[in-house]
Amino acid sequence: MHALGIDIGGTGIKAAPVDVATGKLLADRQKIATPRPARPDAIADVVKQLTTSFSWSGPIGITFAGVVTDGVTRTAANMDAAWLGLDAGALFRKATGNQVRVLNDVDAAGAAEMTFGAGIGEKGTVLMLTFGTGIGSALFIQGILVPNTEFGHIEIRGRDAETRASERAKELHDLSWGKWAGHVDEYLQHIEALLSPHLIIVGGGISKQSDKWVPRLTGIRARIVPAALLNDAGIVGAAMSTGTGG
Ligand code: BGC
Which of 13, 21, 168, 226 has the most CB atoms in a 10 Å sphere around its CB? Predict the structure, then answer.
């Protein structure tokens, strides 16, 4: 019932052992700065370090900010190109000496939200979107995940959506809350036209300030709620992905 969750982010790699039945962390999480360049071997070293520092032996779930099929990392929009086509499952298994499951970062966070956070009991179409360096998505239908959706990369006004509506786009172009919320609203209108979700859960660091922008999303029919687990969702979802919850 216990697994180690490791969440690989653009700035930090965070880990903690998790009770997957309750979603509770079993120890304080540890964080190590993401090495630059974020190449596979350097990241695998950090993953090894974190595993050792918890004296962990058992299943490990690890997130990655890209498409992951059968342990192979397939895209790397904001990651080092060396991840493309890499068997990350094998790399981390070798580094840690444990059984490893690798999955998309927002699929992990979304699974944690559906079980322990803002999506509990939601049966309809639920879309989790995170606004950070990029825009990540996780789609649930009747509580079941459709893995590896990449709705941050739909095209809006001839550009990749995450270059207009991510948190990074707000910082990079110094957009006011009003201006940026307008970009997010336009993005969500496209998403709504394609998927008609009942509920949209918005996550990423900027969801901590959801009162500044969610009320401005006036063009959307779906309910929009901020993520509930914030910092820990990736760790918890990574641990859940190992299937130790039964
Ligand atoms: C990637 C997604 C990822 C998201 C959030 C996007 O650029 O394509 O796979 O989930 O960023 O990290």
Answer: 13
Report CA(130)–ligand 1 centroid distance (Å): 9
**Radius of gyration for the alpha carbons in the chain, expressed in angstroms and rounded:** 17
Do you find a cis peptide bond into 37, omega within 30 degrees of 0? yes
Taking the mean position of all CA atoms in its chain, how far away is CA 191?
18
**Ligand 1, pocket-test mutation among 73, 78, 159, most atoms within 8 A of CB:** 78
66 CA distance to ligand 1 middle (Å): 5
Model confidence pTM above 0.90: yes
Q: Whole-angstrom Cα distance, residue 237 to residue 113? A: 8
Separation CA 163–CA 119 (nearest Å): 27
Q: Which whole number is the average pLDDT over 203-216?
A: 96
Q: What is the mean pLDDT of the chain?
A: 96
The Cα–Cα gap between 33 and 169 comes to 22
